[in-house]
Amino acid sequence: MTVNVYVSAGFRGSPRVGLLAPNTPVSFLPRAETWRYVRSADAFDLGLSATDVEQLQRSGFWARDLESGHANR
User: Fold this and answer.
1) Of the candidates 65, 64, 60, which has an alpha carbon nearest to the alpha carbon of residue 20?
2) Across-strand partners of 37?
3) What is the 3-state secondary structure (H, E, C) of the chain?
4) How far apart are CA 66 and CA 17, in angstroms?
């Protein structure tokens, strides 16, 4: 599955990555942050598990803190 990759400074400067399924609007990502498009990539090339891909297909988005690894779905 191809996903669109976005980055944000996150809350309190903690970097976050957001992934969107194709044709999902950016407004699905947490609204309190400003998201910037980086690129499109295959979900498995990004190291996402099958469970993460299923979550993306169901909800259309997936966001994670880069430093802590905490996922917000």
Assistant:
1) 60
2) 6
3) CEEEEEEECCHHHCCEEEEECCCCCHHHCCCCCCCEEEEEEECCCCCCCHHHHHHHHHHCEEEEECCCCCEEC
4) 7
Task: Compute the half-sphere exposure of residue 44: CA atoms within 13 Å on the CB side of its CA.
Answer: 2
What is the domain partition of the chain in residue ranges? 2-72
pLDDT digits (tens, 9 = 90+) for 10-23: 666 778 888 998 88
Q: What is the pTM of this model?
A: 0.77
- What residues contact residue 23 under an 8 Å CB cut-off, 6+ apart? none
Q: 21-68, pLDDT tens digit by residue?
A: 888 898 888 888 889 999 999 988 988 889 888 888 888 887 777 654
